[in-house]
Amino acid sequence: MAAVTASLALFLLLLGFAGGDAPSREVWCVAKNNAEDAGLQSAVQWACGAGGADCGPIQDGGPCYDPSNVQNTASYAFNDYFRKHAISEDNCNFGNNAAITSLNPSYGNCKLPSSSLANNGSFSGSESSTGFMPGENTSGCGEVFMRFCPFIIATHFLFIVSVPRIVFG
């Protein structure tokens, strides 16, 4: 009985670490360096339109207005969309024109706010999403698996520790 109690305590401790408050780092959703301008412009139009990103700062007179640099313009729109929706890799894709980075893309007077990424790899931010750019995969299977992975590992460990002690006394 003591072995089962000790195993249960260890299980709860591991579960606490898996779901605990991990230190975080700042991340941004930015345009990929190798993305075509036409693809970026199309993705910006979607993000600023149907996607609901606040694109005021990249309009004429805004602090991030730079009509000569599609990369910077797209990065601002992508990052704003990314921050307002479920913070996930799926929401930083834009037709494979964007990626998540830990390098601050802010420049001059244009400051792009960051999102938080826990060191365990999970994103923190808003849980609601209005959808993805047309043609994007919305399955989310990887996110669901990662939520249950610590539980599966802890349960497996509990089973391995408990069964021999119960069977062999």
TrEMBL record:
It holds the Pfam family X8. Its main location: membrane. Gene3D superfamilies: 1.20.58.1040. It is a lipid-anchor; GPI-anchor. InterPro entries: X8 (IPR012946), X8_dom_prot (IPR044788). It is found in: Cell membrane. GO terms for cellular component: plasma membrane; plasmodesma; side of membrane. The keyword Disulfide bond applies. SMART domains: X8. This is X8 domain-containing protein. It comes from Flemingia macrophylla. Keywords: Cell membrane, Disulfide bond, Glycoprotein, GPI-anchor, Lipoprotein, Membrane, Signal. Residues 27-112 form the X8 domain. It comes from the Eukaryota. Residues 1-20 form the signal peptide.
